[in-house]
Amino acid sequence: MKLLTVGLPVHNAGRFLPEAVNSLLRQTYEDFELLLVDDGSTDGSLEYLKSINDRRVRLISQQHSGLTATLNRMLAEAATPWLVRHDADDVAFPERLALTAESIRRFPEAGMFYSYARYYQDDRIFGNFRTTRGTPEQLRELTKAGYLLAICHPAVTLNVGKAVEAGGYRFDLHVEDADLWWRMALAYEIRLIPTATVAVRHNQSSVSANNFEGQCTNTLYIQYLLLSHLRGLTPLPHAEVYDRLRVILNHRQMRFREHSRLTNILLNKKALVRALQHATMAFAASPTQFAKRVLYEFRPSGLVSNGEDPERFYAQRSLLWPQYDPLPFDSTNPAARPTLA
User: Fold this and answer.
1) Which residues pair with 58 in a beta bridge?
2) What value does the mean pLDDT of the chain take?
């Protein structure tokens, strides 16, 4: 029985798809299945996938169902114990699968593996994806403290059975990965492969003020679900709580992240003047975070995380958990679980 299935969801992947596929078919570790799930492409991606002649490839074509449904289908279709995630516009380094297989042999009881990732654009590799680094115990404690893990989705390998047992992927909010990570961290060991195994492509067209704010707010919703779980509280539905979560959103931090990302993209494109403009705006938004991010490029360290300080949520508990307010709520005690009178 093979150990690894590489799952590649495809929807109108365009000109980057052949490079992504070839980076997988040229791995030094060759005994794997490449599961390609085309999610209703209309740009010729399916025709390209059908042209691939390799015994390791299995192609599934479906009506357009969205990324979350496609990811869950990959979990259901995987014929091996482990599913390696990869995206249709990213590039796997040649040793990715070999390093993954070796890690599984060393820690077969883990629920998930992840590695570092680099940024990639215009045939150039640059910059480091900001990644939570730590032992499985540290990752679990960080999650229990109410923070989200910063893990690059295409750098992840999931134990299929344990991911399904944890509930699989949920929500079409473009934060389905962070939502799965906290559930996996609380239930199973998540182990770091301490090297970069994948290069992920920046997508400048997806970065706009409105979309980025929505993405940040959706991330807060995932953190809200985590905090609700930790406290034994019942969360409100996304549609009902979305505007309430915007009260918590740290707009200075959001502007810093947006301008930092644009700075990175523009530097790689050698658009130095525009890159400097966005770097200046990132510094103005948060000088402290700017210094930390620059330092991270040269000396990646520290137990970084995503999300806001949980106290910002608890300060708005009458909005977020109205069924429990005004009952006593000790936010400093993880064991404190307000109950209805």
Assistant:
1) 35
2) 89
Q: Is the peptide bond before 326 cis (omega within 30 degrees of 0)?
A: yes
- Do 308 and 248 form a contact (C-beta atoms < 8 A)? yes
Task: Tell me the domain boundaries of the chain.
Answer: 4-201, 205-324
4-201 CATH pick, 3.90.550.10, 3.30.300.30, 3.30.420.40, 2.60.40.1180: 3.90.550.10
Condensed to tens digits (0 to 9), the pLDDT of residues 164-207 reads 999 999 999 989 999 999 999 999 999 999 999 999 987 655 44
Quickly tell me which residue has 């979560």 as its tokens: 245
**The tokens of 314 are what?**
């608890």
- Beta strands in the chain, from DSSP E residues, in sequence order: 4-10, 32-39, 57-62, 82-85, 91-92, 112-121, 124-128, 156-159, 190-201
Per DSSP, the three-state class of 185 is helix
CB of 132 within 8 A of CB of 150? yes
pLDDT in tens, 282-309: 778 778 777 777 776 666 666 889 999 9
Distance CA 127, CA 306 (A): 18
pTM: 0.87
Specify the DSSP class assigned to residue 172: S
Q: Number of helices and strands (H, E) in the chain?
A: 14, 9
pLDDT tens per residue across span 45-69: 999 999 999 999 999 999 999 999 9
